[in-house]
Amino acid sequence: MSSVKTYSTIEKDTSTQDDLDFEFLRKKGIEYIEALGSGLWTDYNAHDPGITTLEVLCYAITDLGARLSLPLENILAEENNPSFLNEQFLTAENALPIKPVTALDYRKLFIDIEGVKNAWLKKHEKKIYANCKENKLSYKPFEIKEKYKKEFVLNGLYDVLVELDELDSEIFNTEAKRNKEIKRLKEEVRTIYHAHRNLCEDVIEIEEVENHPVAVCAILELKPEADEDKVHAEILYTIDEYLSPSLRFYSLKEMLEKGYAPDEIFNGPLLNNGFIDTAELRKTELRKEVRLTDLIDLIQKIEGVDVIRDITINNCDGKPETKKIWNLCIPAGKKPKRCDKSSFSYYKGFLPLNINKKAVADYLETIYDEIEANILDTASQKKSLELPVGRFSDVGNYSTIQNDFPEVYGVGELGVKSTATIADRAKVKQLKGYLLFFDQIFASYFAHLKNVKDIFSINGELDKSYFTQMVDNVKDLSELVSANYSSDSTITDILFSDLDNKVARRNQILDHLLSRFAEGFSEYAFLMKQLYGSNTDAAVIKTKEGFLQQYGMIGCERPLSFNYFEQEAENLWDTGNVSAFQKRIALLSGNPNYFRRNFSDDPLEIYEEIDTDGIIEYRFRFRSKNKEILSSSSKHYHNLASLYKEILNVKNYGRFAENYEIKVNTAGKFYFNLTNPNIPDTTDEGHVIARRISSFSTQSAAENAIAKTVEFVNTLDFNEGMYVIEHILLRPDVTKDIAPENTFLPICTDNCEGCEGIDPYSFRVSIVLPGWTERYSNVDFRRFLEELIQKELPSHIMAKICWIGYPKSYDTKGEENEMVELEEAYKAWLLAKTDMGQKQPTTKLKRLIKIMSTLHTIYTQGTLHDCDDDEEQQDIILGRTNLGKL
User: Fold this and answer.
1) What is the DSSP string of 424-473?
2) Which of 298, 450, 691, 788 would suit a FRET pair with 520, their CA atoms being 20 to 30 Å apart?
3) In angstroms, rounded to a whole number, what is the distance separating the alpha carbons of residues 486 and 402?
4) Handedness of CA 18, 24, 30, 32 (dihedral sign)
5) What is the DSSP string of 154-217?
6) Angle (nearest 5°) at CA 310 between 308 and 311
7) Is the CB of residue 835 less than 8 Å from the CB of residue 566?
8) CA distance 586 to 702
9) Any idea what DSSP says for residue 479?
10) How far apart are CA 632 and CA 673, in angstroms?
11) Cα angle at 799 between 798 and 801, to 5 degrees?
12) How far is the C-alpha of 292 from the C-alpha of 314, rounded, in Å?
């Protein structure tokens, strides 16, 4: 019995084409009539008015089916806007490439640099020694007992070997100029690497690959008609290409002709000079041996070569070999190169030939000029697949079916005959009204077809999801409809306003679009609804739209870390120069701001008060940049969870002026409260959620203050984000054999008796988040975000997650605010490290390590209540809450 599994697939084209078959529709219609009304309706011939109506409806359905069957580009096309598809869709060169992940990807990136012929990545070997007794690390072995010794090699560090093109001797005519150009190319390789650096990885050395000289000596007999100078040039070129192959850039057209699919062609980084065939790239690894049989085969294929009388290969070290070498081994990390001790002798029959060195040089120059011209030509060609050009077909245009009836019916453009009786005219009007019902259904279908490109747009600019349109080419329409039948928008509201749940429908459409990328927000949406109610529906939609709008970026940059190398201060702090992982987590969790910044600079202030019964209560207020209090809490909160939930309501409802109530105090002055629209009962404690303490002498002044507050609240986002601190970047200088004391990360080795690894650097990150914000202080949201981080972080990277600190305004009662301390230390280290290469700013590094090693997660507070009084009950969860304060 076969063990091969069978899989179900979803057909791309599920259309039956029945909507295009007039006879099929007519037959089905008659079958339906027979089933429902055969007792009353027995005449199904073409002359019957009911059958005529059926045939007209069938024709209208085939018209709709024909438009649905149009090429998609025609359905989506816009009039007088031929570039519409380019504005709507990510083209192949934007959607398919990805920042480098593998060594082959990086090689492509470096070879794309003008002046670099080839490049290779190799692991940088740096050993670290551990003292398990004192939990110390060092680059030098410890003089201790063997049982307390351990060692490991840092992972994620690389060296780059580059092979440079031959420098133009006319331009670089001195040793100093050549050295300067080589240094420039190495620095460009380093710069390119850092712009595409992967998370938890780094580069150490950029080295020019060392040559291993190889002597090739041959005696060859040429054909009588051969040009010996040209043959010699081709032999030299062939041998050099065998020893150190060049890589050719291909155009998109050439790659397609080679049989590659677009997703294969665009896989990896997008290059400036064209495309590199990955299969060819794999064949250009540094040679470990030179085979004489390979050279014989290649030379024999050159046009003009008749017989290879003799050929040998040897090292260019001057040492004679007693026997013929068939395989010449090349030391690791070196490139074989033909040396000046190579010699070639040519014959035609028994006559020796003299080689014209200048002619050979000219032939070689021609070969290399052709290669350079091909590179330039390939680089100039398009690297994009053209989207199909749509032809505007006005697919939403609808014309009434009444004009398709025979003239005798009187419902068409000519109307009833002038001799028709009043009774006949009444019957015609009745028929027109009856047919208008079908007209409106068809008009709605065509209107949806017209708006399909906007319905499925990720920009979400529509305020409705159901559509219809007026049937305005019906003769004497005003006699059939009311005055409300005046515009497409009005009739849409009349017919569909009760059906159109815009939030639910938009969510369904966005979920469909997300599913095309195997992405989902179901857990996030469920959690937001559970925590904060239905008022977050709009925020969830905004999150989904924001994610889709940024998908081209986060899909392409998925492995990317941030660029710390030789950056200006504005590119290191208050910047979007962060890892793609951080961007993705932010977008998946509804946080629009993924910038690296100070989280403690929060306009939200939280403070404590002790009420009359001696219990600590919490309050909040928002201050503008000029320290003016714009909004503050209207009541006391017994725990921070309740306070943060109310703050979220303030941010949600405070964006709209209609949620503010102006009141008059006993002094006759005006003040205002922010209310919860879901709690209209003014006697309910939850009705007022915030207030403005200051009062105003006039109502207009209070209204102006409300407008100012609304403007301020609309600038507020979740003060959320994270610091992703890569431990590999905190390593002491690996180019040295010693490092200052306390510049290594701390370790816990359990006297070398544990089975866990002791390497605190390789593929490890510390993820630090502000633990006080509205959502981050919630136990369930923390659990969701921690699981999301573990799921999205590359599987080979281990994370330590900490929720720390408070805003600067919070009174820590003399204790250090860990978030403020970390922000200062991390920023200072980044700004100093950027220009130091492999070195470290020792003092700043020590401070950062000390703070990182003492971070404490702050937990949501729970409160133990009397069984008879469980108001504001907050569950106590081991490992996720604390008992709070008394």
Assistant:
1) HHHHHHHHHHHHHHHHHHHHHHHHHHHHHHHHT-TT---S-S------TT
2) 450
3) 20
4) negative
5) --SEEEEEEEEPPPPTTTS-SHHHHHHHHHHHHHHHHHHHHHTPBTT-EEEEEEEPEEEEEEEE
6) 95
7) yes
8) 37
9) G
10) 10
11) 160
12) 10
H runs (alpha helix) in 487-604: 488-496, 502-515, 522-532, 537-549, 551-556, 580-588
pLDDT tens-digit series, residues 792-819:
999 999 999 999 988 887 777 667 889 9
What is the per-residue burial (b if ≥16 Cβ within 10 Å, else e) of 469-484? bbbeebbebeebbeee
* Residues 472-485 pLDDT 10s: 889 989 889 998 99
Phi and psi torsions of 555, nearest 5°:
-70, -40
In the chain the first and final C-alpha atoms are separated, in Å, by 72
Nearest C-alpha neighbor of 278 from the set 307, 298, 258:
258
Asked if 48 and 29 count as a contact pair (C-beta separation under 8 A), the reply is no
* Residue 337, beta-bridge partner list: 213
pLDDT interval class at 883 (50, 70, 90): very low
Q: How large a percentage of the chain has pLDDT more than 70?
A: 94
Pairing of strands 157-164, 202-208: parallel
Tell me the C-alpha distance between 476 and 232, whole Å: 92
Alpha-carbon 571 to chain mean position: 20
Strands (E), 15-155: 116-123, 127-131, 136-138, 149-153
- The helix/strand/coil state of 46 is coil
Rounded Cα gap, residues 877 and 868, in angstroms: 21
Q: Which residues pair with 607 in a beta bridge?
A: 619
Domain boundaries, the chain: 103-208, 210-380, 397-500, 604-713
Q: Alpha-carbon distance 235 to 403, whole Å?
A: 82
Per-residue tokens: 852: 């990182």
Q: How would you label 65-74 residue by residue, b for 16+ Cβ within 10 Å and e otherwise?
A: bebeebeeee
> Pick from 695, 553, 559, 506: which is nearest to 105 by CA?
559
CB atoms within 10 A of CB 871: 7
Q: How far apart are CA 674 and CA 335, in angstroms?
A: 74
CA angle 732, 200, 600 (to 5 degrees): 85
Coil/strand/helix, residue 710 = helix
Give the helix/strand (H/E) hosting 608.
Answer: strand 604-610
Q: Do residues 19 and 64 make contact, with C-beta atoms less than 8 angstroms apart? A: yes
Rounded to 10 deg, the angle between the 842-852 and 818-833 helix axes is 150
Give the bridge partners for 149, in sequence order.
131
**What pLDDT digit, counting tens, does each position of 148-182 carry?**
888 999 999 999 999 999 888 889 989 999 999 99
- CA dist 636 and 247 (Å) reads 71
Residue 664 CA to chain centroid, in angstroms? 52
CA 542 to chain CA centroid, Å, is 17
Q: What value does the mean pLDDT take over residues 740-766?
A: 84
Report the DSSP beta bridge partners of residue 198.
560
Return all residues near 572 (Cβ < 8 A) that are at least 6 apart. 564, 596, 827, 830, 831, 834
CA dihedral 306, 311, 313, 318 (to 10 degrees): -130
Distances (CA, A) of 40 to 35, 43, 82, 180, 552: 11, 9, 55, 99, 62
Weakest-pLDDT range from 118-122, 438-442, 612-616:
612-616
CB contact at 8 A, 259 and 302:
no
Q: Which residue shows structure tokens 């029945």?
A: 18
The CATH code of domain 604-713 reads 2.30.29.80
Pairing, β 764-770 against β 798-804: parallel
Q: Is 649 exposed, middle or buried (0-12, 13-18, 19+ CB in 10 A)?
A: buried
- Report phi then psi at 518, rounded to 5: 60, 35
Could you count the other beta carbons within 10 Å of the beta carbon of residue 328?
20
| pTM, full prediction | 0.85
Q: Name the pairing type of β-strands 275-276 and 210-222.
A: unpaired
